[in-house]
Design a protein that fits this description.
Elements: H1 3-33, H2 35-47, H3 53-63, H4 65-82, H5 86-110
Helix pairs in contact: 1-2, 1-4, 3-4
């Protein structure tokens, strides 16, 4: 397990996600202030793959430099705002998700079949009789 590579891959994924969130934020702002430009950004995003943010941003710089800078600024702001709480939130979320998965698996493993194969179907199950204590 190469933890350094895992960290790099995670960081790349997080940067792409923050780029996506920044684009959504800018798009929402533009929808209120400049609908034609919002449509332009929306159409651009449909034609480009934002999942890999750096090629997306490079293409956006060629298309509309001001929008690209705006998204970079918002992305950086989001990153700064979440940087302090993200590590603990990540640890807690993973622990809670793991606990939930373990709990569900334990419940599946310990479920008792309420109708065992050796119970007669359609017949009532009688209570065991106590021995007669008159002797």
């Amino acid at each position: 397990m190469d933890l350094k590579q895992i960290a790099k891959d995670t960081s790349k994924t997080l940067v792409s996600y923050l780029t996506y969130q920044a684009m959504r934020t800018v798009l929402a702002q533009l929808n209120e202030t400049d609908p034609p430009r919002a449509l332009k950004l929306h159409q651009f995003t449909l034609s480009q793959r934002i999942e890999n943010s750096e090629p997306y941003m490079e293409a956006l710089f060629h298309e509309d430099q001001a929008l690209a800078f705006r998204i970079l600024t918002v992305r950086e702001h989001i990153a700064e705002e979440i940087a302090d709480v993200l590590p603990e939130m990540l640890r807690t979320s993973i622990q809670q998700a793991n606990m939930q998965q373990r709990r569900q698996q334990l419940e599946r493993m310990t479920q008792v079949d309420s109708t065992p194969d050796d119970w007669p179907v359609g017949e009532e199950i009688s209570e065991p009789q106590e021995p007669n204590s008159e002797a």
